[in-house]
């Protein structure tokens, strides 16, 4: 699933210029990639927030005026620690024939049976770092945790991924567990 966002190029701005850009409803960002020049951009805050609420996964087509669309993945975003407003976005440009290193979101479905007897779900990580060709990258990984009881946990090695995807995260990295209160 690819989302299309309008982007505009920007020049290097001082902090007050960036603040004014944000007040105008735009979020500054940068597009970087292998064998390409970094490109400073800004996009609509409302459109980007809508994409985040839909699950924030998959490729984004950035439409820059007078240029071919760029296929990118969200690499990082910075938020204000107090207001949680978006401050800056980093996008990684992807080439269809080159391996991409990225984080895939893990979505946990269901209510563990351990919570019915007082257990508490602790989510340690909601991302798995992987690398693969862009066409093989899953947009999200869903895992049903409804059968988990108190004392059980889910590790990265327990998640099944397509054979074309190489897991970079440690295989014993904890994703979620059900613990005693």
Describe this protein's structure:
Helices cover 10% and strands 44% of the residues. It is mainly β. It has two domains: 2-95, Ribosomal Protein L25, Chain P; 101-179, RNA Polymerase Alpha Subunit, Chain A, domain 2. The strands form three sheets. It has a six-stranded mixed β-barrel. Strands 10-7-9-12 form a four-stranded mixed β-sheet, with no helix packed on it. A three-stranded antiparallel β-sheet has the order 8-13-11, with no helix packed on it. Strand 5 and strand 6 form a beta hairpin. It is globular, with a radius of gyration of 19 Å. It starts with a strand and ends with a strand. The mean pLDDT is 85.
List the helices and strands and how they pair.
Blueprint (H helix, E strand, L loop, with lengths): L1 E8 L5 H9 L2 E7 L6 E6 H9 L5 E6 L5 E10 L6 E8 L6 E10 L10 E4 L3 E6 L8 E4 L8 E3 L10 E2 L6 E6 L2
Assembly state (oligomeric): single chain
The end-to-end span amounts to 40 Å
Please give the CATH architecture of the largest domain.
Beta Barrel
Main sheet, how many strands, which sense, barrel? 6 strands, mixed, barrel
The percent range for helix content is under 10%
| Strand fraction | 35-45%
Cα shape = globular
CATH names the topology of the largest domain as Ribosomal Protein L25, Chain P
String of helices and strands: EHEEHEEEEEEEEEE
CATH superfamily of the largest domain: Ribosomal Protein L25, Chain P
Structural class, by secondary structure, is mainly beta
Query: Could you give the order of strands across the largest sheet?
Result: 1-3-2-6-5-4
Mean pLDDT: 85
* Rg, Cα atoms, Å: 19 Å
How many DSSP E strands?
13
CATH class label of the largest domain: Mainly Beta
